[in-house]
Design brief:
Elements: E1 7-12, H1 18-32, E2 36-40, H2 45-49, H3 58-67, E3 69-72, H4 86-93, E4 98-104, E5 119-125, E6 135-139, E7 142-145, H5 151-168, E8 172-177, H6 185-197, E9 204-209, H7 210-219, E10 226-229, H8 231-244, E11 252-256, E12 261-265, H9 282-294, H10 298-314, H11 320-323, H12 333-342, E13 376-386, H13 391-402, E14 407-414, E15 417-420, E16 432-439, H14 448-459, E17 463-473, E18 476-477
The protein binds NADP nicotinamide-adenine-dinucleotide phosphate (NAP).
């Protein structure tokens, strides 16, 4: 069934066990006659060692720009080279905003959950959140990482989760956040999810607090269909879900963007198995199956997936992670690959087979995303100060310094808890204070000059490291209160 026009795909073998896994997936995809033309490219360790600090050479970027589709092995970052992971660089360069991680019960792979029919997908926001990597030392002893969540980023990934549900015939999407604590960031993700959900009345939408989600996943994983979540929550939850069905050897993923898609296993380079022809290539093979569906090759995808499930059902050829490397029962990566090819055309007896339709990827306007409130004003400023003073002398000093300016000190917090005026808390203070000043006139819209005047007076006496304006949009405060603040 070879086809005339081949679809170009960038193939990155990667590091450690990557080349073995990729070779297996490529042999299977070629054997099914899916009509893929591979452009083999480098990224990762060898590239770092050639002195390219990103770990991704120009030729690879050019290939991806052309093909817009990548199947890759895991990449390592050798110690002493490159500060940033080449994986993260690839995901960010091509704005692959969603990381889709399906897990399903695998026949013949015993786990404590066998027989319960786990079949779920974690859709993880892939670009924003704490993984934007914006970190600063605030004082010599206090570090900060900015958690950025945008409306546009949240909308794209939540919409993709609902579209995925439709394309795979799934019934529900759960949104997992910590919006009860981070009301503005995680809260924005939850509110956006709720708004998008209204456009998908055929799909049940529900919210679950992320810590309870982890608890529920261990207790009753079969209740979940699709889980959509922010970047760090998704990172943790999706490793948990991989473990439910037999481990990283079985967990594929897709990094989906509006223009480019990158398919890869969830696992890393597992260096201790590299070159031994022993590892389980299933995660990369199933990543290839996801890729074929993305490219509209539904029959080829089904042939490979069914053959893989049949191979596991037969139980004649299983890799060492399933049966034990020293058991004498484990097959090699090559034997497993060949067993799958030999099973083309067969249908699994026990594993359910899903109907897939084309996935509609959200393609929002490339215009800069913004929301225009009808009314906005600045009602205060938080000045962050490094000080070895205790809260009371610091508060008294700041009150005196603010005299004669448009702002007055409202409170001081230390790591989020109000410590001035004293509320009798037992806060163990560090040298990093958030000092909240508000407009003396409650109706004022503070100017930059009002804030500079205060900052100049404060800065003459204390060491400040950053400042945040306190905005109000359409009458709603654009900032949260400190713990204990009235
Ligand atoms: P890892 O490479 O995923 O390996 C952890 C363990 O998972 C292995 O020791 C092995 O468990 C099991 N495992 C992973 N893949 C397997 C497979 N295909 N078949 C059977 N068992 C498999 O995680 P790591 O050791 O934390 O990371 C190693 C390197 O990979 C790091 O440099 C990391 O940065 C990189 N990494 C890259 C990616 C990526 O490129 N997307 C992702 C994650 C990590 P047992 O030891 O129990 O047999």
């Amino acid at each position: 069934m070879a086809e005339l026009t081949k679809i170009p795909v960038t193939l990155i073998p990667g590091d450690g066990i990557g080349p073995e896994c990729i070779e297996s997936a490529r042999r299977i995809i070629d054997a099914v006659g899916a009509g893929i033309e591979w452009e083999i490219c480098d990224a990762g360790e060898s590239v770092f060692k050639r002195g390219i600090p990103s770990g991704v050479p120009r030729e690879t970027i050019d290939s991806i720009r052309r093909t817009r589709c990548v199947l890759k092995g895991p990449l390592g970052t050798p110690v002493g080279y490159g500060e940033k992971s080449a994986n993260v660089t690839l995901r960010k360069l091509f704005e692959t905003f969603a990381n889709v991680r399906p897990v399903r019960e695998m026949p013949g792979v015993p786990t404590p959950y066998s027989g319960r029919g786990i079949d779920l997908v974690v859709v993880r926001e892939n670009v924003e959140d704490l993984y934007a990597g914006i970190e600063h030392m605030q004082t010599p002893s206090v570090a900060q990482c900015l958690k950025l969540i945008s409306h546009k980023g949240s909308e794209k990934v939540t919409r993709l989760a609902f579209e995925l549900a439709r394309s795979e015939g799934r019934k529900s999407v759960a949104c997992a956040t910590k919006s009860n604590i981070m009301k503005l960031t995680e809260g924005m993700f939850k509110r956006t999810f709720e708004a998008v959900a209204k456009e998908y009345p055929d799909i049940q939408a529900w919210h679950v607090i992320v810590d309870n989600c982890a608890h529920q996943l261990v207790k009753k994983p079969e209740q979940f269909d699709i889980i959509v979540t922010t970047n760090m929550n998704g990172d943790i939850l999706s490793d948990l879900t991989s473990a439910l069905i037999g481990g990283l050897g079985f967990a594929p993923s897709a990094n989906l963007g509006s223009e480019v898609a990158i398919f890869e296993a969830v696992h890393g380079t597992a260096p201790k198995y590299a070159g031994k022809n022993l590892i389980n290539p299933t995660a990369v093979i199933l990543s290839g199956v996801m890729m074929l569906r993305y490219l509209g090759k539904f029959d080829a995808a089904a042939t490979i997936e069914n053959a893989l499930l049949v191979t596991l059902e037969e139980g004649k050829c299983r890799t060492g992670d399933v049966v034990g490397y020293d058991s004498g029962l484990a097959c090699t990566t090559t034997e497993y690959t060949e067993a799958i090819i030999a099973n083309f055309g067969k249908t699994p007896r026990t594993a359910p087979v899903r109907e897939y339709k084309p996935l509609v990827i959200p393609r929002p306007s490339p215009a800069l995303a913004t929301i225009h409130p009808t009314k906005r004003r600045v009602v205060g400023a938080d000045i962050f100060i490094e000080s070895e003073l205790l809260p009371v002398p610091l508060g008294q000093s700041l009150e005196a310094l603010a005299e004669g300016t448009a702002l007055k000190l409202k409170m001081i917090s230390n790591r989020g808890t109000q410590v001035y005026p004293d509320k009798g808390t037992l806060t163990d203070c560090v040298d990093h204070y958030r000092c909240r000043f508000i407009a003396r006139d409650p109706n004022a819209d503070l100017t930059d000059q009002d804030i500079y005047t205060l900052l100049q007076k404060v800065g003459a006496v204390h060491r400040w490291m950053h400042i945040e304006k306190l905005p109000e949009f359409d009458g709603q405060p654009g900032f949260t209160k400190a713990q204990g603040e009235d």
